[in-house]
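Let us practice reading a record.
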Amino acid sequence: MNKMRLYALITVIFLNGCCPLNYPDCGCIPPDPELDEETLKWIKPYNNDDFFVFEDSIGNIDSLLVNRKSETEFYGGDECGCDCQVEIGVLKSTNNSNLTFTITATEIQVLKINNQEEMENQIFVAADIGTNKVMRNNENATATLVDDYEWNNKKLKVFEIKCETGSNCFDYEMNEMIVSRDFGLIEYRTKDGMTWKKIN
């Protein structure tokens, strides 16, 4: 009888101390709550409450106000997730209320480009910075990560994004963008065909 009680006690302790083999979150390791260092570099140019100043090919000037946000978002399973760091940089034109650019660093090493932040599920494009893999969310857009883009006599790592001519890429005001890891948005083309280049 003592052996049966001992066996039952050991079984209860074992089952309470270990996950059943069919339990989906058994041994789960939650995601890292912090963004990785390389992904944060893409957000750093938007750290100051300042302006990005752009000029078009005929000399018009536009200032884009920088707004920086820090948030958290839950990632992982219900039993094995955490509130993870999300960093957002937003540029808004002082001359054109429809012209907005948003860059979001999320999910440890994912970078999302979306110039209408309120359209949460309509990301223009996204990339996994850790693997340099581009994930397109709009079938009419192309995106490329370039390691040696030439700009102002510098070689930069950039994200080149283009919406196919005549396509509807969520009615974005910007349909082409060049986003630098070190300097932020450095060039964009609007729906009217005008190209704007960063001058500050």
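A brief commentary: Helices lie at 2-17, 37-43.
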